[in-house]
């Protein structure tokens, strides 16, 4: 009878441990899955709402001055209007796999994307024409040179600024080959990838020296706190 009682206690303990393991597995696997489903449905609802807004805007604009519509908007996240880029958008942090990071899927004026925090555009800083790339961490400005312009390469990058503190880096970036440091070369700059709410921006500086030419590439990606810089297409 003594051994039988011990067996019952051991069995009860084993059942309890197994039950706790099952509950733990349900919490670890089941809850994230349910969260993904919930967030996916919220994103699909937001997508339908934004498409409806786009449709109504197109309809009202085609009807002329004085036309208007009443819209009922039901979103789980805030709706923002950016007057600088003329965009209406809604953002959501999610673990649902909707689209690959730094990718954009467009349909008419509507688009959906993930990790699209980069804006790349032309502007002026202190009356200097520049190409600007910025994300949530950095603003990086390169002089806008439409045609080959004599310049020292340490003057090419006009400004680097931290977004969170508004701190401007005082150092200069210089680019040179062999003993050509400090010399004046002809440079033109251009955007390879630009726009608002994109995953990556790309500026190229075309450098023409007396005996060589090459390209300086500047790339800023969404979420990154640094600019990738590399030289290529060297011709001697």
Structural class: alpha+beta
Q: Nearest-angstrom radius of gyration?
A: 28 Å
The major beta sheet can be summarized as: 5 strands, antiparallel
Strand order of the largest sheet: 9-7-6-5-11
Portion of residues in helices? Answer: 25-40%
Measure the end-to-end span.
96 Å
- Our count of domains comes out at 2
Summarize the structure.
The chain has 1 helix and 14 strands.
3D structure, described in words:
The chain has two domains: 2-114, no CATH class; 118-235, no CATH class. The strands form four sheets. A five-stranded antiparallel sheet has the order 9-7-6-5-11, with no helix packed on it. Strand 1 and strand 2 (87-90) form a beta hairpin. 26% of the residues lie in helices and 38% in strands. It is of the alpha+beta class.
Task: Indicate the topology.
Layout: H1 2-63, E1 79-82, E2 87-90, E3 103-107, E4 110-114, E5 118-125, E6 128-134, E7 138-143, E8 149-152, E9 157-162, E10 184-193, E11 195-198, E12 200-208, E13 213-221, E14 228-235
List key phrases describing it.
236 residues, alpha+beta, 2 domains, five-stranded antiparallel sheet, 14 strands, flat
């Amino acid at each position: 009878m003594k051994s039988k009682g011990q067996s019952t206690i051991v069995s009860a303990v084993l059942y309890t441990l197994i039950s706790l393991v099952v509950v733990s597995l349900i919490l670890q696997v089941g809850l994230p899955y349910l969260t993904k489903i919930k967030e996916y449905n919220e994103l699909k609802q937001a997508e339908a709402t934004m498409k409806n807004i786009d449709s109504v805007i197109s309809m009202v604009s085609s009807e002329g001055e004085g036309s208007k519509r009443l819209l009922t908007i039901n979103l789980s996240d805030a709706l923002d209007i950016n007057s600088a880029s003329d965009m209406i958008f809604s953002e959501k942090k999610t673990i649902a796999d909707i689209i690959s990071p730094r990718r954009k899927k467009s349909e008419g004026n509507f688009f959906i994307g993930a990790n699209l925090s980069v804006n790349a555009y032309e502007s002026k800083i202190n009356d200097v024409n520049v190409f600007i790339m910025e994300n949530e961490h950095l603003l990086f400005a390169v002089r806008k040179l439409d045609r080959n312009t004599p310049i020292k390469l340490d003057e090419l990058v006009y400004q680097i600024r931290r977004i969170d503190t508004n701190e401007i880096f005082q150092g200069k970036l210089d680019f040179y080959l062999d003993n050509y440091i400090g010399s004046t070369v002809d440079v033109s700059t251009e955007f390879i990838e630009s726009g608002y709410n994109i995953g990556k921006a790309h500026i190229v500086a075309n450098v023409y020296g007396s005996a060589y030419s090459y390209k300086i590439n500047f790339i800023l990606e969404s979420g990154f706190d640094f600019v990738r810089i590399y030289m290529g297409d060297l011709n001697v």
